[in-house]
Each structure stands twice: as C-alpha cells, then as structure tokens.
Write a structure and sequence with these properties.
Elements: E1 18-23, H1 27-37, E2 43-49, H2 53-62, E3 66-68, H3 71-76, E4 82-85, H4 92-101, E5 105-109, H5 116-129, E6 133-136, H6 143-150, E7 158-166, H7 177-180, H8 183-186, H9 189-199, E8 202-210, E9 220-227, E10 232-238, E11 246-253, E12 256-262, E13 268-272, E14 283-285, H10 294-308, H11 316-335
Parallel strand pairs: 1-2, 1-4, 2-3, 4-5, 5-6, 7-10
Antiparallel strand pairs: 7-11, 8-9, 9-10, 11-12, 12-13, 13-14
Helix pairs in contact: 1-10, 4-5, 5-11, 9-11
C-alpha cells in the first residue's frame, strides 16, 4: 500500500484565527513563529513563553505577541487555544501533558519524548482529552520527500531503503543524551519516521555507534531496520560531518530505484531496471525550488486539524512509533544485539464501562 501524499486540509477561514502560544524562544521557536505568520487566516501568535526573558521578548515583539516566563498563566488563559512546544526534548512530556490538561491543542517538536513510556503517556492523554497532538516531523513536508512519495509506485514492490543524515557537531544540549536522547532520537528520528510512514511497522532493530570522546557519546550510528512488510532499511546518522548538513535517501524496488540528495538539491532521479522495453536507463525529473516552506505547510496542517477536528497528519501514535525505533536502536547499541521496538498498548476499558 502506497502512503498518501500530505494533501492539506482546507477548512473555511474561521471567524478569528486560532490563538497560539509558543513555549520556548530558541531557533525552532523562531521557525514556528514565522510559519504562523505565513498562515494568518488560520492562526496567530499571541504569546511566547520562555525562561530566556530577552529572547522571548525579542521574538514576541517581532510578531506582535506578548512575552512571559509564566507557564501557568499561558496555559490557564482561555483565549490561548493551542501551543507549540519548541523546547529541549527533556521537557516535552511535562509540557505536552500540562497543555493537554489545560485543554489546548499541541504541536510538539520531534521527538515526541525521550522514551516510549513517556510517549505512551502523551498518546493516552491526547486521546482521553480529544485534543490534536501533532509531532513536528517536518521532513514529511520537504518538497523532495513529497516528490519521491508521489513516484514511489514506479519502483514496484519496495525491497531496500537507505537513508543518510549527517551534520556537524550541534553542541549544547543536543549531544547530552539525558536531554536529547542522543543522535538516534534527535537526528536519525527524522528518517525513522519517514521509513515507518513509507514501509510500515518495524519488527527488529540492529544498531552500532561510535564516540569521539567521553564528552561526545554516540556521534555516529548505523541502524538496520527490518519492517514487517519485508523491507530492509539502512539508516546512517553522523554529527561528525565536516562539511555541515547533508541528507540522502535511496529506495530500491523490483522495478527500479529512486533517490534524492540535499543540501544541493538535485532533480529527483528514477533509474529503471534494464529490460528489452527500456532503452533509456535514467530520466531526471526537475522539481522547482520555488515552493512554500515545508515548515509553513506543517503549520498549516496543524492549524487545519485543530480547526476542523480532523486527525493530525503526524499524530501522537506516529510520534510514539518513531520514539520506539530510536529507543530500540539505543538498546541495540548498548547490548550489541538486535532489539524489538516497543508497541503501544492502549489502556484497557474499565470493567463495566460502556464501549
């Protein structure tokens, strides 16, 4: 079954845009604020809450919002309908649960949480509160990914996938496993989410990693995923890349191969297998770079889901599954053995409760 393209929900413009508060004032908070500003019919930034008062004030002023360090005041404000959690992963569980308890819709930065135990709590709370929880796995909206997905059927039955995501040392809390979960959670989780979306559940994970020194654990990792669909996925992640960020995806099937590379975006290339009927072995399909930002499209999808009451394209359960693969990868690195990802267990209905 081919996964569906992320066609945006198109609600009628509301009488007033959804009032959104951003928790956090760092780089991703800035990105989400800009994405809100690009969707003025459906959402508007009303507050920025952060511990860094100067950064929060600067971001809020740039978008005509108010700045505060008082989380309780933001969550108790009846005018705030949704929040964006743009803080270190260590804080995701507590902030998302607090926002849900306050009745807010939530867009949370990836990964959803630092463990499946925490992610499971969020899934259960989201479903109990009947609120939209969407995980910002932004790569799903990248133009190259959407173009590749639209042509996935050309390769026939998928057999093997290879993904590489490399970058320089991000420093700070990102390389602190207690705060970010390390490279499998913070960097490679993008590809885990894509591969789960494309090829379905993962039944086994085998991973290896290397360190630079005691202060920089797990700076490079290779992870092999076996999907229940039979597809094998190979994922490489590195924070030791001297030339900065780059990513590559290659999908091979019974009929051919698809690949793309960034940052120097190259035309999506389909290479069919040789046959008597096919004379030309490769055909490049140029894609225009002049498109809306994937972050804007992601925000549009979140706002539309919250306004329409529709399921989010990347809901809490999808976030749980990506966390489960990252968690299994770390367990495999530690043990040297293949591991099975955790499976979400829905809460049992109470005895005598209505179905």
């Amino acid at each position: 079954m081919t996964p569906e393209l992320l066609e945006p929900i198109a609600p009628a413009p509301p009488a007033s845009p959804l009032a959104v508060a951003i928790l956090g004032s760092g780089r991703m908070a800035e990105v989400h604020a800009a994405s809100l500003a690009a969707n003025p019919r459906f959402g508007r930034l009303v507050a920025v809450q952060g511990r860094n008062a100067a950064a929060a004030k600067k971001l809020a002023k740039a978008h005509g919002a108010r700045a505060t360090s008082d989380l309780a005041a933001v969550l108790s404000d009846p005018h705030v309908q949704a929040v964006v959690v743009a803080t270190p992963t260590l804080t995701h569980r507590s902030l998302v649960l607090a926002a849900l308890d306050a009745g807010k819709h939530v867009l949370v930065e990836k990964p959803l949480a630092l463990s499946t135990a925490e992610a499971g709590e969020i899934v259960r709370a989201a479903e109990a509160q009947d609120r939209v929880v969407m995980v910002a796995h932004c790569v799903r909206w990248f133009h190259e990914v959407q173009a590749l997905l639209g042509k996935l059927e050309q390769i026939g039955r998928p057999r093997v996938a290879r993904a590489s995501r490399v970058a320089g040392n991000p420093g700070g809390w990102y390389i602190d496993e207690q705060q970010s979960g390390g490279i499998c959670f913070d960097l490679m989780v993008h590809d885990f989410d894509l591969l789960l979306w494309w090829f379905g559940a993962v039944e086994r994970v085998h991973a290896l990693a290397t360190t630079r020194d005691a202060a920089h654990p797990e700076m490079y990792a290779q992870v092999v995923l076996r999907h229940t669909s039979g597809v094998l996925s190979y994922v490489e992640g590195s924070w030791l890349h001297p030339d900065g960020f780059a990513t590559r995806v290659e999908l091979a099937g019974a009929e051919g191969l698809l690949r793309f590379e960034m940052p120097e975006t190259k035309p999506l290339r389909f290479v069919p297998l040789a046959s008597k009927r096919i004379q030309k072995q490769g055909a490049e399909i140029p894609e225009s770079p002049f498109r809306r930002s994937p972050y804007e499209l992601q925000m549009e999808a979140f706002l539309a889901a919250a306004l329409c009451g529709a399921p989010a394209p990347v809901g809490a359960r999808a976030g749980f599954e990506a966390v489960a693969v990252a968690e299994a990868a770390r367990a495999s690195i530690a043990s040297g053995q293949p591991c099975r990802p955790a499976v979400y267990a829905a809460p049992r209905a109470r005895k005598g409760a209505r179905s």
